[in-house]
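note to self: dont lose this again. the chain is below, predicted strucutre after it. 248 aa total, dont forget to put it in the shared folder this time
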Amino acid sequence: MKFVFDLDGTICFKGQPLSQDIMTALESCMAKGHELIFASARPIRDLLPVLPEPMRKLPMVGGNGAFVAKDGETIEVCAFPVEMVEAISKIISAFKLPYLIDGDWDYAYTGSEDHPIYRNLDPLKLAKKVVLDELRDIVKIVLFPGEQHKEILAELGKLPISLYEHTSENIVDISPSGIDKWNGLKKLGVLEGDFIAFGNDANDKAMFVKAKESVCVGVHEVQKYATLQVPSEEAAVIAMLQELSEKY
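---
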């Protein structure tokens, strides 16, 4: 069976790398013959640092589906059309919004250095921070709307994009239209009903509804699409993983 894991808030917490206990549980799952896949909102660049070296070549979906990697190589990147970048740029300018904008590897960032996103941004120094005009392809956009979030969401809602609002961090996460974690999993050859998904946020809905079993970690609106739910505690996640890896 394939086991698909979101990262932040699911199997790693507060931006820290996977704990030894989580790594041991994942290794035990693989030892039973299961395949592991990681599916995160992070681009591949920022997904790698939280994983131990031996797991960095496992299949991955990054950027909510915009990046797909296998065997340590990015095999597909889905970028915004030029006209969509221009439309979003107008909204950024109109509202004077700080942002994190990812290209296929490098990034542009104008947000606060105190925000958790900045602390998790390219910790291995694998990429370059550049000005927006230097990014070749725009793959993922994170906006920091502040108190203007309703007005900004109304404007973004007029565009054909994939959008997720993360209220706990007060950010808006934007991907190209039709891009989500399930879309990325399909590009890795994953079939509907042939995997078990662990996640904790709205961006996990697309894979939850296609999974054989889906586990919501913590209390979140997305749990209504899950078949199972556990507290947002490492021990509870490990116990559920052990149960499902033995069952399937």
